[in-house]
Design brief:
Largest sheet: 7 strands, mixed
Helix content: 25-40%
Distance between the termini: 32 Å
Number of helices: 9
Length: about 230
């Protein structure tokens, strides 16, 4: 069963503002390009939402698939990439990727589905569609980095980042922390984005604690590669 995203499903226009403000220096994609190579290959962006990241992959990949379970976001993504002949957006989920076995070089998921214990079925599905030597790349927010992590944990006291990191390590992922900067055109847009990410109380606190229009946000990038060559079971 697909779990609704609490922000992009309900406030897609505000989420678009957030996407444009996130990582304005391109630190995450800079790290990804050094960690995995999708040049001339096939990329599946799982939980692609409105398709914000698909054009970036399309610049150098031969084929890009956007996988998204929510029909309104599917249409937004298709509209965004309609001019790109090497991109196709299809309905699916992390646990049901509608692609063949060993057909993809990189499976990318950014703040979508893969949040630690409980996502094992999605990991298995990603391993199924990956070619030998391919990589599953999971990008999530680092709740150990403040102030953003402090706000996250205020609203999600049950979320334990150490448990999540231990889970990914046990599943064979390497993890790197990546520092990014978010920058908004004005403070009202900052306020609006904080309002879709946090409860009213936490969003108000976050806005008061953020001078100006920028804030530092740290991510974790988890990478697991599918073995290549002979495997002894």
């Amino acid at each position: 069963m697909t779990i609704p995203s609490p922000n992009i499903w309900h406030w897609p226009e505000w989420y678009e503002v957030e996407n444009r403000a996130q990582d304005v220096d391109g630190a995450i994609f800079r790290h990804l390009r050094g960690a995995v190579d999708w040049t001339g290959g096939t990329v599946a962006d799982v939980g692609c939402g409105s398709g914000f990241h698909l054009p970036v992959f399309a610049e150098s990949a031969a084929t890009v698939y956007g996988i998204e379970p929510h029909p309104p976001l599917l249409e937004r993504a298709r509209t965004r990439v309609g001019h790109l002949p090497n991109v196709r957006v299809i309905e699916g989920s992390a646990e049901g990727i509608p692609l063949g076995d060993a057909s993809v070089d990189v499976v990318h998921a950014r703040t979508a589905y893969f949040f630690g214990p409980g996502c094992g079925r999605g990991i298995c599905e990603a391993m199924r569609v990956l070619r030998p030597g391919g990589a599953l790349v999971v990008v999530d927010l680092d709740a150990t980095a403040h102030p953003y992590g402090e706000w996250m944990r205020a609203d999600l006291p049950q979320y334990n980042p150490e448990t999540v990191e231990a889970f990914f390590a046990a599943q064979g992922f390497d993890m790197v922390r990546v520092e990014t900067r978010w920058r908004f055109p004005d403070r009202e847009l900052l306020r609006g984005v904080l309002g879709i990410e946090f409860t009213k109380k936490t969003a108000s606190k976050a806005f008061a604690q953020t001078p100006g229009v920028a804030l530092d946000v740290r991510y974790r990038v988890h990478v697991r590669r599918k073995p290549a060559g002979l495997q002894i079971l």
